Amino acid sequence: MVIGEPAPQQAQRQPHPPLPKAPPHKELPVYQHPPTKVTSDQVRPRYFSTMLDIGFFVLAGIASLYLAWILAADGLNVDRLWYWIPFWGVLAYLALPRLHRVLTWIYVPDYFIGRTRTSDGLLGDPVNLGFLGREKQLHQVMEDSGWTLAQPITARTAWKMIVSSLFKRSYPQAPVSPLFLFGHQQDFAYQQEVDGNPHKRHHVRFWKTPEGWLLPGGHRADWLAAGTYDRSVGLSLFTLQVTHKIDANIDIERNYIVSTIEHHHPEVPVGIIEDFSTGYHSRNGGGDVIQTDGDLPIVDVSVVPTSGSQPVPKKPRRPSSLILGCVLILLMSIFPTATTVLNLLRPDLFADVPELGESEAGVARAVSIGFVVLVVALLTVLAIATAAGVVWTRTITLLLLSGLIIAIAFAGPAMGFGQPGRSLSFGDLSTLSFAILALLALSSTSVRNFVEAKRQLRRENRKRPAPE
User: Fold this and answer.
1) Residue 226 pLDDT greater than 60, yes or no
2) One domain, residues 66 and 186
3) Disordered: where is this region (predicted)?
4) By residue range, what is the domain housing residue 361?
5) Is residue 284 part of a domain?
6) Which of 37, 140, 364, 377 is exposed most, by the fewest CB atoms within 10 A?
């Protein structure tokens, strides 16, 4: 059928014509091409900086598992049973997501297969809608059809979402979790809350397709979308995170979204790409069962008139993980530094060294304090420059964090790390936790993409001719 025209109901599908027969071979076939191994470098080109980032990424995942093990071992002490709560937090929100991200980078295709991906790299919700038209027209149609624009995820909206879920307070603009398509997060999402219950909602995410990109089969779509219905809140099967659980039959939600648009904008043509994918049942990134018939409606909103100017292009935002990582570095340096300086100021610090007189002890104390302050100043400068998106300072910071974590891991048994019956001091555990959390944050994909974009922008600015 033609995209842009209504689909006939219960259309009879014609059988395929028989395949032509190949001429018979008169001679015994011989394989003419010598076998060559296709390496991963040919599929995904690797550069030194990329390999270095991969190393930091993997090391951060191993370090998060190490931190989870330490918390579990310390949690065996009767007075620290509450450590099992941060153990679950580290395992569910840090260790398992990073482990999934590393493994899926290896075996999940990095091209369009009709499925989105979670931030952990797992296959997410299926793509089940396509749209033609400009962004402003799409916003106009969705708002007219009774849908509410979801707010982006920030510390404030995330906290508000947690409170509304716990107390079942209405939150019509609640953020949705990020899903990725074409290598980037959804551009925006719309939702409809059900009966004022934040646990239940209709929602659909939208992604702008690359310029000139065509769907399999040569069909055009300016936007792709994934719509599902949240039926409750529960734990993810793969990461143990608290998340929404979706209804298995995503075709019902897909048809509901299209029906709301057709009801409020009957002039909008809707076509269907039948058998866009084979009908299948699977699981999404949260472990929920999904099933679909494989059809893909294409909604043409380009016929909808809009008023006003075009939306201003969005500037890339500094990822929250970058800010968090830099703040953790500052905290990691300030707290131990304060303790060290207080110890250095003790009058009896050099009492066991009779060779040092009062003046020599003062010099030693001043040099020690100066060295500590210098280290803190260096870490502060690195943190500020990294937050600004400087590539080389991020690399140096990751190297320092990696070295610190590896050194602590080797010295861990002597310090009591992970030893049942022995408890770590709060300062030691805080330093290790801050270092691992900072390494996880600064090695994340969002931070790497941000600093690379900043570097590319600086290169483009240098190439521009200076104004006369």
Assistant:
1) yes
2) no
3) 1-38
4) 48-101+317-461
5) yes
6) 37
pTM summary value: 0.76
How many domains would you assign to the chain? 2
Is 106 within 8 Å of 118 (Cβ atoms)? no
- Say what the pLDDT of residue 8 is: 45
Judged by average pLDDT, the poorest of 126-140, 210-224, 311-325 is: 311-325
Identify the domain boundary among 303, 328, 349: 303
> Which three-class secondary structure string do you get for the chain?
CCCCCCCCCCCCCCCCCCCCCCCCCCCCCCCCCCCCCCCHHHHCCCCHHHHHHHHHHHHHHHHHHHHHHHHHHHCCCHHHHHHHHHHHHHHHHHHHHHHHHHHHHHHCCCCCCCEEEECCCCEEEECCEEEECCHHHHHHHHHHCCCEECCCCCHHHHHHHHHHHHHCCCCCCCCCCCEEECCEECCEEEEEEECCEEEEEEEEEEEECCCCCECCCCCECCEEEEEEEEEEEEECCCCCCEEEEECCEHHHHHHHHHHHHHHHCCCCCEEEECCCCCCEEEECCCCCEEEECCCEEEEEHHHCCCCCCCCCCCCCCCCHHHHHHHHHHHHHHHHHHHHHHHHHCCCCCCCCCCCCCHHHHHHHHHHHHHHHHHHHHHHHHHHHHHHCCCHHHHHHHHHHHHHHHHHHHHHHHHHCCCCCCCCCCHHHHHHHHHHHHHHHHHCCHHHHHHHHHHHHHHHHHHHCCCCC
How many Å apart are CA 104 and CA 94, to the nearest integer? Answer: 16
Q: Quick check: 450 and 322 in contact, CB under 8 A?
A: yes
Is residue 142 domain-shared with residue 250, that is, in the same domain? yes
In whole angstroms, give the CA distance from residue 384 to residue 278. Answer: 50
| Co-location of 82 and 130 in the same domain | no
Residue where a domain stops, chosen among 303, 327, 344:
303
In this structure, the answer to whether residues 84 and 130 fall within a common structural domain is no
Does residue 190 share a domain with residue 295? yes
Q: Is 3 part of a structural domain of the chain?
A: no
363/144 Cα distance (integer angstroms):
74
The 10s digit of each residue's pLDDT in 253-265 is 999 999 999 999 9
Q: Cβ(441)–Cβ(322) under 8 Å?
A: yes
Q: Is the dihedral of CA 401, 407, 410, 413 positive or negative?
A: negative
- d(C-alpha 271, C-alpha 219), whole Å: 11
